[in-house]
Design brief:
By secondary structure, the chain is mostly helical. The chain contains 9 helices and no strands. The protein has one domain.
Length: 207
């Protein structure tokens, strides 16, 4: 892999990871409700799901999953249902994901990890991204394993940095002493974004 190819991969992956999406909204909500440090468990969950997808893509299994309509539909609709549930809860719950109360409702790190993992693993776009993008950066004339390891470590590092930033952003929003109506607006906007992401996910096709 040339340095030029690596830089293109680095920039592409960074843009994808830092662009706000369902995973970013989820970890920001975790940071608001549980604190930025504890929300790192959710960040690790998201990164773990992406590591699995990366490994599957590197071994070619992801292409088989995308080609299998049944498996793809199962992953997609589990993700759609989960996103819609989170969105509706954020909009109609008296206590949305962004909280400003000093006594925050703290979840266990295990629950935060599982939530982050499910959000990302049930997202077929993540699967399709790695399945479609990863092969484009591989040089078949050079040893494949070192290239996959380099890109895998890079992706993991960017995942951890970007989603950790979102976790602490949610923490700062909750600790900023915002007025109740502002917090309510943020919660409803986050819920609407999650519902929109679920609807968009429902329209994703493997072909």
């Amino acid at each position: 892999m040339t340095i030029e190819t690596y830089l293109v991969f680095l920039i592409t992956t960074a843009v994808v990871c830092f662009t706000p999406g369902a995973a970013a909204i989820t970890v920001a909500s975790q940071g608001a409700a549980n604190g930025g440090r504890k929300a790192f468990a959710g960040v690790v969950g998201i990164a773990s799901a992406n590591v699995i997808y990366f490994i599957l893509s590197g071994t070619g299994i992801a292409s088989l999953i995308v080609a299998s309509n049944l498996l793809f539909q199962i992953i997609k609709w589990v993700g759609v249902a989960y996103l819609l549930w989170l969105g509706v809860t954020a909009i109609f719950s008296a206590n949305g994901p962004i909280k400003v109360s000093p006594s925050r409702t703290s979840k266990s790190t295990k629950k935060l990890y599982v939530q982050g993992f499910v959000i990302e693993f049930a997202n077929p776009k993540a699967l399709m991204y790695f399945a479609a993008i990863l092969p484009q950066f591989l040089n078949p004339e050079m040893p494949i394993l070192p290239q996959i390891l380099i890109m895998g470590v890079t992706t993991l590092a960017i995942d951890l940095m970007s989603y950790t930033a979102y976790g602490f952003l949610g923490d700062r929003i909750a600790a900023g002493g915002l007025r109740k109506w502002v917090v309510g607006l943020i919660n409803k906007s986050a819920g609407a974004a999650l519902i929109f992401a679920g609807i968009r996910m429902a329209s994703v096709s493997a072909r």
